[in-house]
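== Sequence entry ==
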Amino acid sequence: MMATVTRNLRRQDHRLRELVRSTGDVRHAIHRGVPRSTAHGWLKSPQTEVVTLAVSDMDVLRLQQELVTLRRRVAKLIAVLRLLVIWLKLSGFSLASTRIPDGPGKLTLMRAIEQSRAVLPLRVVLRVLRLSHSGYDSWKREKECGFDDLPSCPRTSPHQLTPDEVETIKKMVTSDDYRHVPTGTLALLALRLGKVFVSSSTWYRLIRSYGWRRPRKRIHPAKPKVGIRASRPNEIWHIDMTLIRLLDGSRAYLHAVIDNFSRRILA
């Protein structure tokens, strides 16, 4: 069996490493027992961020004063939090059964929850607010959805239409260029052009849900409602036919010769 050798790595002070990098002189580290190869490696290695406490430079008296101040502040916060929790329990208020409308209020509450997660677990924050995990997840989905034209954020699915596809369908439906094309044929046309790959039933559903109106302008001129008119008597005759049903079930056709100018029956 091979024996496992454990090496204890020495960690140097980051301030000494920064001094060597800023001056470029490795003798500051060599005089303090740092190997020469390690000091030269500091000059070549990239700079790393080091997080330190600001209280490390404070004396004992200032630390004690700050400790007393922080203890008082924590005691006040605990007292206020205890009152709020007891009031919520007695009032029976719960965010799980109360709908908060979309707006600045809900965004402010979600921002406060995200800031509280830096010092408290999410389950503790939701327990204080008496909000369920499912309700909080639905709020996050609505925030990430970003649809202003929908009452609520729809569930995402692989076959769901994107906002760009819906906008393309809207432009084709309300465009004057396709006003003569029926909706079903318009869906096939968009499929052939490679714009939207959607069935015609989906087009009809979107038109009903969004209330889009197709342009209905006449392409052909209006047909004249006034027929042929004569300028003098006996210029134009025409025959009018009338069907008469008799009592025995037979039919009789009555033909009348009418003068177009006077509208009188001539024969």
User: Anything to note?
Assistant: The beta strands are 237-245, 251-259. The chain has a mean pLDDT of 79.
